[in-house]
Amino acid sequence: MKKALAFVIMLVLAMSVFALASAEKTVHLYMASDTPTLNQHNSVETSLDTPVSYCGATLYRAVADETRLNYEYIGEIASDLPKQIDDLTWEIPLRPEAKWANGDPINADTVMYSFKMLLDPNLANQMADFLSDFSITILNAKEYSKQTSDAPVAWEDVGIKKIDDYTIQIVTTSPVTQKDVCSHFTTRAVAMVYEPLYEQGMNETRTSTTYGSVPEMWMSAGPYKLDSWVHDSVQTYVRNENYWLPEYFHYDSVDVRVIRDMNARVELWEQGALDTLSPDINTIETYIDDPRLVEFSSITVFHIDVNCKNPENPLTASLNYRKALYHAMNREVIAKSIFGYQQPSGVYVNGQAGMFSGQIYRDSDAGKAVVERVESWGPAGYNPELAREYLKKAYEECGVPEDTVITLIMAFDESDLAWKATAEYLMEEFPVIFEGKINLAITTYAGISTTAFKETTDVWDLSPNDWSRSASRTYPYSCFYYYRRAYESHPNNYFDDEFEAQYDVCDSDEVKADYARMLEETAKLENIYLDKVIQIPMVQEISYQMFADRLELPVDTYVPGFGWGVIYGDIVE
């Protein structure tokens, strides 16, 4: 009898343990490529957003509000919203309970060290501008990070100050709103770094650090902590028991697989092994009528960068050559038939630009006038006759004999099927449009970013890209931010003084204070962009997303600037 009772007790205990184990909530996500490093200071790769969002901590976070239709800011490391002291000065109180995953405290010294290293002129971090000049411009921050021996700038002159152990002060160059300040301190670039490991990885000249190169050289501080990282395979995050705002996060663990191939993603989705899926051109038709499919316009306009320094292309620096390429793009076919259910675009300012300032730029008279100008050339700017005329001028301008056949090289990531199909389409179209004078060849790369590829060679002509800037929702002109000399990681290598000067006009305090004028000045900037063909706009992205039935989202609709809030979701079986 006793043995039987003991057996029953053991069986009940085993079933209880099994029930607890099966009740653990694990969300299954994916990335198209792995993160080259976890050092958020010095990587422009968007793949880093995922581990830093889940495992990093910033001063503020955007969370869904009670209406489930919008978002609001809450303090993460900050204990409250920023307090305005005067027109240019803000104080940010910090949480005494904030700490690293290992239990070490996070305080004002942590913030000051993290920000100072991000701006450090010797390290020359690629993401420094996201602290110096994003939603707000911090006094002398850019000057400090870009300083030279001839024009030194002291750290003490930068508008980032420690008031006490749990208060910091921010000084801006112009008046900003509380929302601007909060937004500025939410990006992955301004997440805290762990000083002991950052210093441990520093080289003797203090020009680089191995912080974030491997899991052991990075410290978590967010709602989750990095549990394992098998490069190019999977990242796993588990709950951080030392995190101070656990009520906002509902998963017990997060499984993020690196899946480059869309077919593999679809297979896992169909097996129930993924909780999200973003269909591409080859899969959207399958899911277009699926009730789980949601869509929204994005801040991304896919474009093509044109190399103006290819030593093997005799037309490489010619504006007429770039204009010929601009008009040779049949965006209607590329957007609808190749990218699939996308919007052709001969302009670059995206469809969400300006939405937080009261009027979307594309809906304004100024924005519409630019589109009308483009459409006057042809559908979304496509005009083969103009393309041939400009190519003829380019040949004459560069002294290239008329019978010369030039082969352009289009370089892209081999896993990007939409651009692969686009390149193959252009391989057929270019010889027809340009009457045999222009051919197109393909070169691909893998395992590195587009930026990294361009650092290896100048022998390429066309390079697809999709850089976007969330600040454009407030300041429409800022979507051009990355294509100026001042941005060190710029994807293009052609710069124009008129374009740069007009960007500065748009970015002036006077224009920022007058939104109606900002729309007009942005239109001037976009027209210069088109006149000088800074790069070639192609497709306005319409994003499609699938969510598993078991994934409960925190919002009822896509919220610009916030998305679907998957990080705040829950698993409901």
Overall description:
This protein has 18 helices and 19 strands. Strand 8 (about 225-230) and strand 9 form a beta hairpin. Residues about 1-20 have low confidence and may be disordered. The protein is an alpha+beta fold. Helices cover about 30% and strands about 20% of the residues. Helix 10 packs antiparallel against helix 13, helix 12 packs parallel to helix 18 and helix 16 (about 495-505) packs antiparallel against helix 18 (about 515-530). The strands form six sheets. Strands 11, 12, 13, 16 and 17 form a five-stranded antiparallel sheet that branches. The protein folds into two domains: about 30-225 and about 550-570, Dipeptide-binding Protein, domain 1, CATH 3.90.76; about 295-545, Roll (Dipeptide-binding Protein, domain 3), CATH 3.10.105.10.
- The CATH topology of the largest domain turns out to be Dipeptide-binding Protein, domain 3
CATH architecture of the largest domain: Roll
Number of domains: 2
**What is the end-to-end distance?**
39 Å
| CA-based gyration radius | 26 Å
CATH C-level class of the largest domain is Alpha Beta
Structural class: alpha+beta
Number of strands: 19
Helix content class: 25-40%
| Backbone shape | globular
Low-pLDDT windows of residues: 1-22
**How much of the residues is beta strand, in percent?**
15-25%
**Overall pLDDT level:** 93
CATH superfamily of the largest domain: Dipeptide-binding Protein, Domain 3
Main beta-sheet annotation: 5 strands, antiparallel
